[in-house]
Design a protein that fits this description.
The protein is α+β, with helices and mostly antiparallel strands and 193 residues long. It is built from six helices and seven strands. The chain has one domain: Heat Shock Protein 90 (2-Layer Sandwich), CATH 3.30.565. Strands 1-2-6-7-5-4-3 form a seven-stranded antiparallel sheet. Strand 6 and strand 7 form a beta hairpin.
């Protein structure tokens, strides 16, 4: 179910994080797209950086540092690559923020798309957030194999299904030619029960 204000629509697990971000970074979507390796370099760097927040030994029921690093690398690579693939319009800045909190981490990326790209993305998001992740995953795998679909949501589904990542999405119209899309990913540092 979407939450709406006069200027934005929010879907999924969204939080207005009040803490000061642990880190912020701005990138250029055109550079991420032209130099594809920058996506994995950025994600691996930030995953390793954030994983150092985890002590070397953790109590039972908590994720180990290596596991957190692996999950974050996969998550951030998916988010950076999506910004590289789908950014469009006059505004190509990508903004990255991270909050490393006691029991969780929150990552947020904002990029811009053309307004006509909103509806298809919202339709996909609603399907991902409201459907059964296991069933949707196999449907999307089959559809991708048959039709070579781009933007199928398989990465998001894998992160939801296998790693318990909670996503929030915010769409804000920036101008007649640009919509800011912010994806928020919530990573629980406790093992799923």
């Amino acid at each position: 179910m979407a939450q709406s204000t006069s200027t934005s629509q929010i879907f999924g697990h969204w939080e207005a994080v009040t803490a000061v971000p642990t880190t912020t970074m701005s990138l250029d979507a055109a550079q991420l797209s032209a130099h594809w390796r920058r996506n994995s370099l950025s994600s691996d760097y930030w995953a390793a950086y954030a994983a150092l927040h985890i002590p070397e030994t953790v109590p039972a029921g908590w994720l180990r540092r290596d596991d957190v690093s692996y999950v974050l690398s996969y998550l951030l690579n998916e988010l950076f690559e999506n910004c590289a693939k789908f950014s469009a319009g006059p505004e190509l800045a990508v903004h990255f923020q991270a909050w490393l909190l006691d029991e969780r981490m929150v990552f947020q990326l904002t990029n811009h798309i053309k307004p006509q790209g909103e509806r298809p993305f919202i339709t996909l998001i609603e399907e991902l957030l409201n459907g059964d992740p296991d069933e949707l995953y196999f449907q999307k795998l089959e559809a991708n194999a048959e039709q070579d679909l781009g933007g199928s949501g398989l990465g998001y589904l894998t992160l939801i299904k296998d790693y318990g990542i909670q996503f929030g999405f915010r769409f804000q119209r920036a101008s007649g030619e640009s919509t800011a899309v912010t994806v928020q990913a919530h990573v629980n540092l406790r093992e799923p029960s």
